[in-house]
C-alpha cells in the first residue's frame, strides 16, 4: 500500500473480553458501557472529539488520535481514567466489563470508509492475539489489559511521565497471523513480577504463528544474530532489526516503518590498532 496521503497517528483498539457469551440485552448494556468508558477517558485528558477518529467494531472500538495529541496522555491519564471507570462500573455488577486494549503508532490512511495501514493492523492484532487473551483469562481479577507495540514502549512508555508506569510493563512475544513482534503487557495496579507469572506471558509462540522468518523483515550486517538461532556469533559491525512494518531498504535508507531497534556491535579499530 502506498503511504501517499497517510498521516502518522496513535491507534487504539479496544475489545470486550467474553462478549460472545452475552445475550442481546446484555450486549446492549455492554456497548453502552464500552462507549461510556472511552468517552469518559478521552474527556479526562481533554482530547478534542473533533480530531478523534472512532469506528464501531461491534464489541470493540477502533480509535485514532489527532497527530498533535501527545501519546503519553494515552498511556498515562487516559489509561488511568479508563481503569477507574471500569472499577466503578463493575463494582457489584453481574456482568463485568473487561477490556483488552492494543496501542501502536504509525502512518494510517483514511479512505472514507475507515482507517487502513500497518499501524492499524498491529494495534488490532496485539489486542486480539492469543497472548492477550490468555493473559486476560489468567488475570481473572483484573478488568483492563494494555498491550503496546515495542516502538510505543521504547519511545513513549519508557520515557515515563505523569501516571505512566514503565516498571509495571512486561515484555513478551506476539506471533499471530502475519505478525511476529515484541510487545509489552500492562495491567494497572499489578506489579510486573505478578504479571510475568501469568500463562499468557510465557513467551511461547502464539497460535497461528508464521513459519520461521515470517512476519519480520530484517536487515543485518556484520554477521548479526537472527532471533531463535541460538547464541550469536561474534559481531564485527552493526545489527539493525525492523519488525513488522519495513517496506524496503535502498541506498542505506530504510523506508516505511513504525518501529526499529538498532544495536551497535563492537567499535571498529582505529588505524594502526590491532583488529
Question: What characteristics describe this protein?
Answer:
about 280 residues, globular, single chain, 6 helices, three-stranded antiparallel sheet, about 25% strand, eight-stranded mixed sheet, alpha+beta
Structure description:
With 275 residues, this protein is α+β, with helices and mostly antiparallel strands. It contains six helices and 13 strands. The strands form three sheets. Strands 1, 2, 3, 4, 5, 6, 7 and 8 form an eight-stranded mixed β-sheet that branches. A three-stranded antiparallel β-sheet has the order 9-10-13, with no helix packed on it. The chain is globular. The termini are far apart. The C terminus is likely disordered.
Question: Concise description?
Answer:
This protein is an alpha+beta fold and 275 residues long. The protein has helices at residues 24-44, 71-90, 118-128, 130-138, 150-155, 192-196; strands spanning 7-16, 53-56, 60-64, 99-110, 115-116, 144-149, 169-176, 179-186, 217-220, 238-242, 248-250, 253-255, 261-264. It contains 6 helices and 13 strands.
What does the secondary structure layout of this molecule look like, with pairings?
Layout: E1 7-16, H1 24-44, E2 53-56, E3 60-64, H2 71-90, E4 99-110, E5 115-116, H3 118-128, H4 130-138, E6 144-149, H5 150-155, E7 169-176, E8 179-186, H6 192-196, E9 217-220, E10 238-242, E11 248-250, E12 253-255, E13 261-264
Parallel strand pairs: 4-6
Antiparallel strand pairs: 1-3, 1-4, 2-3, 4-5, 6-8, 7-8, 9-10, 10-13, 11-12
Helix pairs in contact: 1-2
Amino acid at each position: 500500500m502506498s503511504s501517499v496521503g497517510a498521516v502518522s497517528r496513535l491507534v487504539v483498539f479496544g475489545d470486550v473480553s467474553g462478549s460472545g457469551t452475552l445475550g442481546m440485552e446484555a450486549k446492549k448494556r455492554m456497548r453502552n458501557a464500552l462507549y461510556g468508558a472511552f468517552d469518559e477517558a478521552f474527556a479526562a485528558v481533554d482530547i478534542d472529539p473533533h480530531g478523534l477518529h472512532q469506528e464501531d467494531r461491534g464489541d470493540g472500538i477502533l480509535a485514532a488520535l489527532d497527530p498533535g495529541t501527545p501519546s503519553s496522555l494515552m498511556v498515562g491519564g487516559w489509561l488511568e481514567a479508563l481503569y477507574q471507570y471500569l472499577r466503578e462500573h463493575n463494582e457489584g455488577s453481574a456482568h463485568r466489563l473487561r477490556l483488552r486494549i492494543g496501542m501502536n503508532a504509525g502512518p494510517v490512511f483514511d479512505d472514507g470508509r475507515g482507517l487502513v495501514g500497518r499501524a492499524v493492523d498491529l494495534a488490532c492484532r496485539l489486542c486480539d492475539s492469543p497472548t492477550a487473551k490468555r493473559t486476560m483469562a489468567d488475570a481473572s481479577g483484573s478488568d483492563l489489559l494494555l498491550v503496546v507495540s515495542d516502538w510505543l514502549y521504547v519511545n513513549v512508555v519508557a520515557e515515563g511521565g505523569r501516571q505512566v508506569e514503565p516498571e509495571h510493563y512486561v515484555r513478551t512475544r506476539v506471533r499471530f497471523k502475519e505478525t511476529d513482534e515484541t510487545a509489552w503487557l500492562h495491567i494497572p495496579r499489578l506489579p510486573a513480577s505478578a504479571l510475568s507469572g501469568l500463562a499468557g506471558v510465557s513467551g511461547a509462540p502464539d497460535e497461528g504463528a508464521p513459519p520461521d522468518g515470517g512476519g519480520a523483515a530484517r536487515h543485518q550486517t556484520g554477521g548479526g544474530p537472527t532471533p531463535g538461532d541460538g547464541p550469536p556469533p561474534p559481531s564485527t559491525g552493526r545489527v539493525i532489526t525492523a519488525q513488522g512494518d519495513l517496506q524496503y531498504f535502498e541506498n542505506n535508507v530504510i523506508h516505511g516503518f513504525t518501529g526499529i531497534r538498532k544495536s551497535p556491535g563492537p567499535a571498529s579499530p582505529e588505524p594502526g590498532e590491532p583488529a
